[in-house]
Amino acid sequence: MTRKSLLAMLLLLGTSMTMAAELLRVGVSADYPPLIFEQGGQIVGIEADNARAVGEIIGRKVTFANLPFDRLIPALEAGEIDVIMSGFSVTAARSERVIFTDSFMLVGQMAIMHRDKISRFAQPWSVYRPGVRVGVEPGTTGAAFAERELKEAVITNYEDAAAAFAGLRADQIDLYIHDAPTSWQLATSRENSDLISLYSPMTEEMLAWAVRPGNDVLAGELNRALAVMKANGTLQYILNRWIPVRVEVH
Known about the structure:
This protein has 250 residues and is α/β, with parallel strands linked by helices.
Protein backbone atom coordinates (compact mmCIF):
# COMPACT_ATOMS: atom_id res chain seq x y z
CA MET A 1 0.00 0.00 0.00
CA THR A 2 1.41 3.40 -0.98
CA ARG A 3 1.83 6.23 1.48
CA LYS A 4 -0.83 8.22 -0.42
CA SER A 5 -3.45 5.46 -0.24
CA LEU A 6 -2.63 4.82 3.43
CA LEU A 7 -3.12 8.49 4.21
CA ALA A 8 -6.44 8.50 2.39
CA MET A 9 -7.59 5.47 4.38
CA LEU A 10 -6.58 7.05 7.67
CA LEU A 11 -8.41 10.26 6.79
CA LEU A 12 -11.53 8.30 5.91
CA LEU A 13 -11.28 6.32 9.15
CA GLY A 14 -10.78 9.50 11.13
CA THR A 15 -13.81 11.09 9.53
CA SER A 16 -15.96 8.04 10.31
CA MET A 17 -14.78 7.96 13.93
CA THR A 18 -15.48 11.68 14.33
CA MET A 19 -18.97 11.30 12.90
CA ALA A 20 -19.65 8.33 15.17
CA ALA A 21 -18.69 10.39 18.19
CA GLU A 22 -20.95 13.30 17.27
CA LEU A 23 -24.61 13.84 17.92
CA LEU A 24 -26.92 13.83 14.93
CA ARG A 25 -28.98 16.97 15.51
CA VAL A 26 -32.30 16.41 13.76
CA GLY A 27 -34.54 19.39 13.05
CA VAL A 28 -38.28 18.70 13.19
CA SER A 29 -41.52 20.61 13.37
CA ALA A 30 -43.49 18.24 15.57
CA ASP A 31 -47.04 19.17 14.60
CA TYR A 32 -47.49 16.96 11.55
CA PRO A 33 -49.00 13.56 12.48
CA PRO A 34 -48.33 10.83 11.62
CA LEU A 35 -45.00 12.00 10.20
CA ILE A 36 -43.74 13.88 13.24
CA PHE A 37 -45.61 15.01 16.36
CA GLU A 38 -45.55 15.11 20.14
CA GLN A 39 -47.27 12.47 22.26
CA GLY A 40 -46.93 12.10 26.00
CA GLY A 41 -44.03 14.53 26.05
CA GLN A 42 -42.11 12.55 23.41
CA ILE A 43 -41.44 13.26 19.74
CA VAL A 44 -42.87 10.35 17.77
CA GLY A 45 -44.02 9.42 14.29
CA ILE A 46 -42.57 8.18 11.01
CA GLU A 47 -39.70 10.67 10.91
CA ALA A 48 -38.82 10.12 14.58
CA ASP A 49 -38.53 6.39 13.91
CA ASN A 50 -36.60 7.10 10.71
CA ALA A 51 -34.13 9.28 12.62
CA ARG A 52 -33.55 6.68 15.31
CA ALA A 53 -33.04 3.93 12.72
CA VAL A 54 -30.57 6.11 10.82
CA GLY A 55 -28.71 6.87 14.04
CA GLU A 56 -28.31 3.16 14.74
CA ILE A 57 -27.01 2.49 11.22
CA ILE A 58 -24.46 5.30 11.07
CA GLY A 59 -23.49 5.10 14.73
CA ARG A 60 -24.58 8.53 15.91
CA LYS A 61 -26.80 9.39 18.85
CA VAL A 62 -29.91 11.29 17.74
CA THR A 63 -31.19 14.44 19.40
CA PHE A 64 -34.26 16.36 18.22
CA ALA A 65 -34.64 20.13 17.86
CA ASN A 66 -38.35 20.97 17.70
CA LEU A 67 -38.75 24.21 15.72
CA PRO A 68 -41.48 26.10 13.87
CA PHE A 69 -41.62 24.86 10.30
CA ASP A 70 -40.40 28.14 8.81
CA ARG A 71 -37.34 28.02 11.09
CA LEU A 72 -36.06 24.66 9.86
CA ILE A 73 -34.06 25.81 6.84
CA PRO A 74 -32.61 28.90 8.60
CA ALA A 75 -31.54 26.66 11.52
CA LEU A 76 -29.90 24.26 9.07
CA GLU A 77 -28.09 27.12 7.31
CA ALA A 78 -26.92 28.51 10.66
CA GLY A 79 -25.46 25.15 11.70
CA GLU A 80 -27.87 24.75 14.61
CA ILE A 81 -29.05 21.37 13.25
CA ASP A 82 -27.45 18.78 10.97
CA VAL A 83 -30.45 17.46 9.07
CA ILE A 84 -34.14 18.20 8.55
CA MET A 85 -36.34 15.10 8.93
CA SER A 86 -39.83 16.53 9.13
CA GLY A 87 -41.96 15.30 6.23
CA PHE A 88 -40.10 17.68 3.92
CA SER A 89 -41.37 17.82 0.32
CA VAL A 90 -38.73 18.17 -2.38
CA THR A 91 -39.28 21.45 -4.25
CA ALA A 92 -37.17 23.50 -6.64
CA ALA A 93 -37.13 26.48 -4.28
CA ARG A 94 -35.93 24.40 -1.33
CA SER A 95 -33.33 22.69 -3.50
CA GLU A 96 -31.63 26.05 -3.95
CA ARG A 97 -30.93 26.17 -0.20
CA VAL A 98 -30.44 22.54 0.86
CA ILE A 99 -29.16 19.20 -0.40
CA PHE A 100 -31.93 16.62 -0.48
CA THR A 101 -31.22 12.96 0.13
CA ASP A 102 -32.87 10.21 -1.86
CA SER A 103 -36.63 10.14 -1.32
CA PHE A 104 -38.17 7.79 1.22
CA MET A 105 -41.85 8.24 0.32
CA LEU A 106 -44.19 9.42 -2.44
CA VAL A 107 -47.17 11.49 -1.29
CA GLY A 108 -49.53 14.04 -2.83
CA GLN A 109 -52.10 16.72 -2.19
CA MET A 110 -55.64 15.49 -1.47
CA ALA A 111 -59.06 17.09 -1.16
CA ILE A 112 -60.85 16.76 2.19
CA MET A 113 -64.57 17.46 2.51
CA HIS A 114 -67.57 17.02 4.76
CA ARG A 115 -69.38 13.75 4.15
CA ASP A 116 -72.48 15.71 3.13
CA LYS A 117 -70.63 16.72 -0.07
CA ILE A 118 -69.44 13.30 -1.20
CA SER A 119 -71.90 13.12 -4.08
CA ARG A 120 -70.90 16.56 -5.35
CA PHE A 121 -67.18 15.82 -5.35
CA ALA A 122 -67.14 12.08 -5.96
CA GLN A 123 -65.14 12.48 -9.18
CA PRO A 124 -61.60 13.92 -9.09
CA TRP A 125 -62.38 16.38 -11.91
CA SER A 126 -65.15 18.00 -9.85
CA VAL A 127 -62.49 19.76 -7.73
CA TYR A 128 -61.63 21.90 -10.76
CA ARG A 129 -65.12 23.33 -11.34
CA PRO A 130 -65.51 27.15 -11.25
CA GLY A 131 -66.60 28.66 -7.95
CA VAL A 132 -65.49 25.81 -5.71
CA ARG A 133 -64.57 27.21 -2.26
CA VAL A 134 -61.17 25.88 -1.31
CA GLY A 135 -59.29 26.16 1.99
CA VAL A 136 -55.50 26.01 2.17
CA GLU A 137 -52.70 26.57 4.68
CA PRO A 138 -50.43 29.41 3.53
CA GLY A 139 -46.89 28.47 2.59
CA THR A 140 -47.66 24.81 1.94
CA THR A 141 -47.41 22.90 -1.30
CA GLY A 142 -51.21 22.56 -1.11
CA ALA A 143 -51.58 26.34 -1.23
CA ALA A 144 -49.16 26.52 -4.15
CA PHE A 145 -51.16 23.85 -5.99
CA ALA A 146 -54.46 25.68 -5.44
CA GLU A 147 -53.04 29.00 -6.62
CA ARG A 148 -51.47 27.40 -9.67
CA GLU A 149 -54.16 24.92 -10.76
CA LEU A 150 -57.49 26.07 -9.29
CA LYS A 151 -57.67 29.42 -11.06
CA GLU A 152 -61.48 29.68 -10.83
CA ALA A 153 -61.76 28.62 -7.19
CA VAL A 154 -62.45 30.89 -4.23
CA ILE A 155 -59.44 30.36 -1.97
CA THR A 156 -59.47 30.95 1.79
CA ASN A 157 -56.42 30.69 4.06
CA TYR A 158 -56.52 28.77 7.35
CA GLU A 159 -53.84 28.68 10.02
CA ASP A 160 -53.87 24.90 10.35
CA ALA A 161 -55.88 21.76 9.66
CA ALA A 162 -58.05 22.15 12.77
CA ALA A 163 -59.20 25.60 11.64
CA ALA A 164 -59.88 24.32 8.14
CA PHE A 165 -61.89 21.39 9.49
CA ALA A 166 -64.03 23.90 11.42
CA GLY A 167 -64.47 25.78 8.14
CA LEU A 168 -65.70 22.63 6.41
CA ARG A 169 -68.22 21.98 9.19
CA ALA A 170 -69.46 25.58 9.10
CA ASP A 171 -69.84 25.35 5.29
CA GLN A 172 -67.37 28.21 4.80
CA ILE A 173 -65.49 26.09 2.27
CA ASP A 174 -66.25 23.05 0.15
CA LEU A 175 -62.80 21.48 0.19
CA TYR A 176 -59.59 21.65 2.14
CA ILE A 177 -56.47 20.91 0.08
CA HIS A 178 -53.70 19.40 2.14
CA ASP A 179 -51.17 16.61 1.83
CA ALA A 180 -51.69 12.91 2.30
CA PRO A 181 -50.70 12.62 5.99
CA THR A 182 -53.62 14.85 6.96
CA SER A 183 -55.94 12.55 5.03
CA TRP A 184 -54.41 9.43 6.59
CA GLN A 185 -55.24 10.80 10.02
CA LEU A 186 -58.92 11.04 9.09
CA ALA A 187 -58.98 7.29 8.56
CA THR A 188 -58.32 6.64 12.25
CA SER A 189 -59.73 9.78 13.88
CA ARG A 190 -63.07 9.36 15.66
CA GLU A 191 -63.50 13.09 16.28
CA ASN A 192 -63.22 13.75 12.54
CA SER A 193 -65.43 10.92 11.36
CA ASP A 194 -67.77 13.45 9.68
CA LEU A 195 -64.96 14.36 7.25
CA ILE A 196 -63.57 12.30 4.39
CA SER A 197 -60.80 12.54 1.83
CA LEU A 198 -60.78 11.80 -1.87
CA TYR A 199 -58.06 9.15 -1.98
CA SER A 200 -56.92 10.24 -5.43
CA PRO A 201 -53.82 12.42 -5.04
CA MET A 202 -53.88 15.51 -7.23
CA THR A 203 -50.10 15.82 -7.19
CA GLU A 204 -47.05 13.65 -6.68
CA GLU A 205 -44.49 14.86 -4.14
CA MET A 206 -41.35 13.19 -2.91
CA LEU A 207 -40.48 13.37 0.78
CA ALA A 208 -36.78 13.44 1.64
CA TRP A 209 -34.29 14.61 4.27
CA ALA A 210 -32.23 17.77 3.87
CA VAL A 211 -28.68 18.77 4.82
CA ARG A 212 -26.59 21.90 4.32
CA PRO A 213 -24.96 22.48 0.93
CA GLY A 214 -21.41 21.21 1.11
CA ASN A 215 -22.19 18.53 3.70
CA ASP A 216 -21.81 15.75 1.14
CA VAL A 217 -20.37 13.32 3.69
CA LEU A 218 -23.52 13.38 5.80
CA ALA A 219 -25.75 13.23 2.73
CA GLY A 220 -23.89 10.11 1.64
CA GLU A 221 -24.24 8.54 5.09
CA LEU A 222 -27.96 9.25 5.13
CA ASN A 223 -28.45 7.79 1.65
CA ARG A 224 -26.53 4.67 2.66
CA ALA A 225 -28.67 4.30 5.79
CA LEU A 226 -31.85 4.78 3.77
CA ALA A 227 -30.77 2.11 1.30
CA VAL A 228 -30.24 -0.31 4.20
CA MET A 229 -33.66 0.56 5.64
CA LYS A 230 -35.33 -0.10 2.29
CA ALA A 231 -33.47 -3.34 1.71
CA ASN A 232 -34.04 -4.93 5.13
CA GLY A 233 -37.69 -3.86 5.49
CA THR A 234 -37.16 -1.32 8.28
CA LEU A 235 -38.67 1.55 6.31
CA GLN A 236 -41.78 -0.42 5.33
CA TYR A 237 -42.20 -1.54 8.93
CA ILE A 238 -42.10 2.08 10.12
CA LEU A 239 -44.65 3.18 7.51
CA ASN A 240 -46.98 0.28 8.31
CA ARG A 241 -46.79 1.18 11.99
CA TRP A 242 -48.05 4.72 11.52
CA ILE A 243 -50.17 4.80 8.35
CA PRO A 244 -53.57 3.09 8.07
CA VAL A 245 -53.51 3.03 4.26
CA ARG A 246 -50.92 1.64 1.85
CA VAL A 247 -48.39 4.14 0.55
CA GLU A 248 -45.66 3.91 -2.05
CA VAL A 249 -42.06 3.71 -0.88
CA HIS A 250 -39.33 5.26 -3.05
